[in-house]
Automatic annotation (TrEMBL):
SUPFAM superfamilies, sorted: YbaB-like
Stretches for region Disordered: 1-24
Family to which the UniProt record says this protein belongs: Belongs to the YbaB/EbfC family.
Keywords: Cytoplasm, DNA-binding
Compositionally biased spans, kind Low complexity: 1-14
Main location: cytoplasm
Pfam families, A to Z: YbaB_DNA_bd
Role this protein plays: Binds to DNA and alters its conformation. May be involved in regulation of gene expression, nucleoid organization and DNA protection.
Localization: Cytoplasm, Nucleoid
Gene3D superfamilies assigned to the protein according to its UniProt record, in alphabetical order: Nucleoid-associated protein YbaB-like domain
Domain of life: Bacteria
Protein name per its UniProtKB record: Nucleoid-associated protein GCM10011346_23900
Amino acid sequence: MKGNMNNMMKQMQKMQKKMMKAQDELHEMSFEATAGGGMVTVRANGKKEIVDVEIKEEVVDPDDIEMLQDLIVAATNDVLNQIDEKTNATMGQFTKGLNMPGMF
């Protein structure tokens, strides 16, 4: 029984290293989303940090700030959803078959 436990611990350590490598790779990835037909572009990294927001001059209307705000929110939510989807797809391979509430 001790041998099985040692093997299981080795497998868990191996899986943990793979998970950490996958997470590091995710953090290094870049994601981009646009709204308003490319009028607003939001870029983020895999850590969910917004690294750039690009706004085309023609979408800036002082009389319609709400539209610009909506475009920024839409692009930001889209880029964050992309990161979530990629994270779930990448990290989900490690938890497939495990019934662990609260995991990815």
